[in-house]
Structure formats: structure tokens, C-alpha cells
Write a structure and sequence with these properties.
Alpha-Beta Plaits, about 300 residues, alpha+beta, 9 strands, 3-stranded mixed beta sheet, two-stranded antiparallel sheet, binds iron/sulfur cluster
Length: about 300
């Protein structure tokens, strides 16, 4: 088995080496901020409104054909106590936190891909499997992915998950902003089902205005910070909160787009150690093998 894997590796490396020129000519960098249309869409998540019903978790699974129980089972609030991240089984999750302003009213926070304006996942992907669309969505293409999982490492919000449970053709799993639904003029499934409009869908620029207006009108209720307005160059999903975002497990991020970091690392490797084509061939071979494995250590 091991020798078969090595033969496969050499064949794959040769194939990818031959096609590396075309790969390296493909721009893997997503559209930059200044090219994105003003009219691009977003979602405003108001964590002071969310009641932690988890209907959004259920609707997301339904819309993406992910295994789920009945909606009634989602009223079990004990799940909220654990701090969960989106994973291969759930593209969005809701966590609950103490609310220092009102201990009787905890803060519930829905988490999913932020759909960054300058996505680090897209920048890190050496085969261009991610696309930043004009409407603000960041999607992932299974036909291009080689399973390297650089996107998982690069994401500043720790969002993309790998389908370790699938032995054959595992996918990168993350919120796709319900791209197929919004293309048809429908709302994202989570937005549509939310019973209290804690998540609202609209033009990003309008949502920012709404968020600033809420902060201005209720300075006692909100902190003066819209998460995602500027972080990592801006994101399509925006958050309002009544307490510091670090208390809600959001990372502290600067205004500079996260891709700058990954690109610097990649350029450093290319400049001083290995020519890009050789590196793509090597990485491509290893990753092609990895893609069909449950565990990385089982490759050789
Ligand atoms: S949150 Fe992570 S996965 Fe989503 S677009 Fe940004 S970098 Fe990519
Ligand atoms: S936008 Fe769609 S994919 Fe993303 S969390 Fe909502 S329902 Fe899930
Ligand atoms: S459906 Fe709305 S209120 Fe319920 S958990 Fe999700 S965001 Fe919060």
C-alpha cells in the first residue's frame, strides 16, 4: 500500500509539475476591496437581539442537506453552554455568554464564515479553489481543491472545516452565504427563519448605517464598535454587541487584510528556498494523496 502511495505520489507530482506553469499563472488572490461593488450584500448580526433559539442552525443544515434532527430538538439550551465552532457537521453554531449588563439575559452569538472582503482563505489557496463574488459571498470549489487545508490555517476566524469523516473526496466545509438561494432572490436560510430579526440581510453599506444608528440611539445598550466594518479589511457579516467582542470569543484583529500575512510567508518561501513550480509539484503530489485520507499521518 505504501509503495503504491509513493508511485501515485510521483505520478501526481510529475503531472502537477507539468501543469504548474498554468497553476502559477492563475491569480489565487481574491478581488481586492476597491474592486468590490458598493452594492454588495451582507448580514448584520445583533447579539443583543438574538434569543439563542438555534433555528438558524437547523435551517442552515436543512438548506445544505446536512443531517439534522427535528427543529423541536433545537430548543435544548444546554448545547449553548459549550463553546462550539462551525465544523463539518454544522456551518453555523450559536454560543451563549454571560451578559454583565443583565445577568438574566445572556448574550447569544451566531458564528459562521464572515465572508471577508479580502479573504485569507482565498489568498492561501494555491489552486484558486475560493472565489470572492461581487455580491460579497466567498465560495469554495470542490473540483479545484487539492485538500491542502492551507485555508483552514489561514482563516483569522478559524472557520473552514475539513470533512475528516469522509474517506473519499472530503470537502472543505464553511458557510456559503446561501449562494444558490440568494442568486434566486431568496434570503439566506438562517436569516429567513430567525424569529426575532437578530440577523438581517441587506446591502453592506445600508447595514453599516443601521448599525451606527442603533449605537447612536442606544449607547447604553451597545459598545461603539461594529465588528467587521474594518477588521481584516472589512467583512460581509457584521456584528453588534453590548460587551467587548473579545468576551464573546472573537479574535482581536487589525484593519489590514489577513492575506498580507499568508502572502508574505509564501513569497518568503518562494524567494529564498524553492522555486514555485517545484514547490507546487511537491505540495500538489502530497496534497492529492492527503485528500483521500482520513488522517494526515496515514499518507505514507
Ligand atoms: S472568515 Fe475565513 S473562511 Fe470566511 S472568507 Fe474570511 S478567511 Fe475565508
Ligand atoms: S448564510 Fe446560509 S450557509 Fe451561511 S450560516 Fe446562514 S444558512 Fe448557513
Ligand atoms: S435564529 Fe435568530 S434568534 Fe435564533 S439563534 Fe439564530 S440568530 Fe439567534
Amino acid at each position: 500500500m505504501a509503495s503504491q502511495n509513493r508511485r501515485d505520489f510521483l505520478k501526481t507530482a510529475a503531472f502537477i509539475g507539468a501543469s504548474a506553469a498554468s497553476i502559477s499563472s492563475v491569480s489565487t488572490k481574491a478581488e481586492t476591496l476597491d474592486k468590490l461593488p458598493e452594492s454588495r450584500m451582507g448580514v448584520l448580526v445583533d447579539t443583543t437581539v438574538c434569543i439563542g433559539c438555534r433555528n438558524c442552525e437547523w435551517a442552515c443544515k436543512e438548506a445544505h442537506n446536512l443531517e439534522t434532527d427535528s427543529l423541536e430538538t433545537y430548543s435544548n439550551r444546554s448545547v449553548l453552554k459549550g463553546k462550539r465552532r462551525p465544523d463539518e457537521y454544522a456551518l453555523t453554531v450559536v454560543n451563549e455568554y454571560d451578559n454583565p449588563k443583565n445577568p438574566m439575559l445572556p448574550t447569544d452569538v451566531k458564528v459562521q464564515c464572515m465572508h471577508c472582503d479580502d479573504p485569507a482563505c482565498a489568498s492561501a489557496c494555491i489552486v484558486g479553489a475560493f472565489t470572492k463574488h461581487e455580491n460579497g459571498t466567498v465560495t469554495w470549489d470542490s473540483s479545484k481543491c487539492i485538500g491542502c487545508r492551507y485555508c483552514i490555517i489561514a482563516c483569522p476566524f478559524q472557520v473552514p472545516a475539513f470533512e475528516y469523516s469522509k474517506a473519499l473526496e472530503p470537502n472543505i466545509m464553511k458557510c456559503d452565504f446561501c449562494f444558490d438561494r440568494t442568486k434566486e432572490g431568496k434570503l439566506p436560510a438562517c436569516v429567513e427563519i430567525c424569529p426575532v430579526e437578530a440577523i438581517i440581510y441587506g446591502k453592506r453599506k445600508d447595514l453599516i448605517e443601521i448599525a451606527h444608528d442603533r449605537i447612536k440611539r442606544h449607547p447604553d445598550k451597545y459598545i461603539d464598535h461594529i465588528l467587521g466594518e474594518y477588521e481584516v479589511g472589512g467583512t460581509s457579516w457584521l456584528y453588534l454587541a453590548g460587551q467587548d467582542f473579545t468576551k464573546l470569543d472573537f479574535p482581536v484583529l487589525g484593519k489590514a487584510p489577513a492575506p498580507g500575512v499568508t502572502e508574505s510567508i509564501q513569497h518568503g518561501i518562494f524567494a529564498y528556498f524553492i522555486p514555485p513550480i517545484a514547490l507546487y509539484a511537491l505540495l500538489g503530489g502530497v496534497m492529492w494523496l492527503n485528500k483521500n485520507k482520513n488522517k494526515p499521518e496515514e499518507v505514507f
